[in-house]
Amino acid sequence: VNFTAMKKRRTEIVVETDEIVLRRVGASVAIWCAECGSLARMIAPEGAMAVTGASSREVYRWVEAGQVHFLETVEGFLLICSNSLPTRAN
Ligand SMILES: [Zn+2]
Question: Positive or negative CA dihedral for 57, 63, 69, 75?
Fold first, then answer.
């Protein structure tokens, strides 16, 4: 058994899993936000929807209008700065 290959494969699986969790569940990652000038909790659009109660259409409208801090990963994956999200309107 080639343990080095197994370990490498395991790392790849972990990375893939993290990405899926981030996309599907809306988990957050701490990333430097240039707008905040500090580390910020970056969440996927789905996470922003969960936090604010907004629809995906609203979340993407905020992004397009520059109303929220956001960044795009090299994979084209959108992350939104949770500090910039509007508070949930009840
Ligand atoms: Zn920010």
Answer: positive
